[in-house]
Amino acid sequence: MTELQNRCLDTFPEWLRTLATDATELAEVLAKPTAPEAARRYVTGGLNYLFKSLDLIPDGIEDLGFLDDAFVLRVAAALAIEEVPALREEAPVLARLAADTKLVSELLGKDYVRLETYVKSLTKGAARGRSVDDILTNDEVRTGFLTEVTGWAASYATPTFTRDEKNLVKLQSFLSAKLPG
Predict the structure, then answer these.
(1) Which pLDDT value is given to residue 53?
(2) What's this model's pTM, rounded to 2 decimal places?
(3) d(Cα 7, Cα 17) in Å, to the nearest integer?
(4) Of 86, 94, 112, 145, which has fewest CB within 10 angstroms of its CB?
């Protein structure tokens, strides 16, 4: 097993364990009206991804189903920091998650750029009838969305992740096949 595979197999179970907390902390960033809109847009797109019915890897797939969600939240955080570097200090959750994209990039190689492009596109998308614009501009929609994120986090059950390099191959294959061109 390679050093990269070992790092991924050691790290990904932790990302699955903290996914609910990560989502809750990102929701807190979104809830702050003082955070710049460009950054809030990426955070909103990443959080809204949690509710997409057709995400990159279906949530029910054993071992892998929520890793795409963890990846998307990390890439969204990195894009928010790239857009507003001052948030590195103001929103530590963004800095922490953004730092994790290095491992995602190493694992995905050339497909990382496709993942990043996909996450950027989420800022124009919708899930459960809510667009990112609706969430950002309508207080009632945003409040309902934040309540839904909190509810999702409370009901999230950490899935298993078997320490098997075959899971990494499956993960790479899923993302390579599902990420848009």
Answers:
(1) 84
(2) 0.97
(3) 16
(4) 86
